[in-house]
């Protein structure tokens, strides 16, 4: 299925690996030119080279910390008028809320709530003027089913979700949609970090912890970044203009609720 977005320009954050890279690859496969943002230059350049070779699109890279004003300025200088924005930043560390300081909370809010809002603020008016825009925020299944040790993430990402719920109803008349994708457990570096933490807590090897948790997912496995990317690409497509303000779970059936 051709998604009708060939030739568009996308700004993809956290794009050197994991879910961000999955989104960048899926968009590039549809002919979208991509600006890839990540903190570490070497893996970012490798990813860019591989996407160029595979899909023949224009790929620009910006090595920066997107959670800082300087990083956002650099990303927007490289891609000042994106048609597509994929917001993505690594989640804050796990832990006990009793140990978190005000500074820990501010860092979590900066990364997982305020940075996406700032990037939306910088790009959404231009999208509305041009009559096309797709904004996808990568959040977490914890927005629907909070994970106790991820309280920093639960709080910050839920704040972003509430903000998007209001704004998305104001932009859709201009063919600009804003949606959130809520990943469950995907086979990424973030999952590896969480598995190490769980293994230490439970006195297991990392492989044992992985197997135990995967067995508890109805799909009996962890998700693949390319599966996530495919969902992102559809939400960014010409055919998704009637989908906005939604929180789409992709978690292998792990969330047990009806709504």
TrEMBL record:
Belongs to the short-chain dehydrogenases/reductases (SDR) family. It comes from the Bacteria. PANTHER family: 3-OXOACYL-(ACYL-CARRIER-PROTEIN) REDUCTASE, NADPH-DEPENDENT REDUCTASE BACG. InterPro entries: NAD(P)-bd_dom_sf, SDR, SDR_fam. Coiled coil: none annotated. Signal peptide: none annotated. Gene3D superfamilies: NAD(P)-binding Rossmann-like Domain (3.40.50.720). Pfam families: adh_short_C2. This is SDR family oxidoreductase. CDD domains: BKR_like_SDR_like (cd05344).
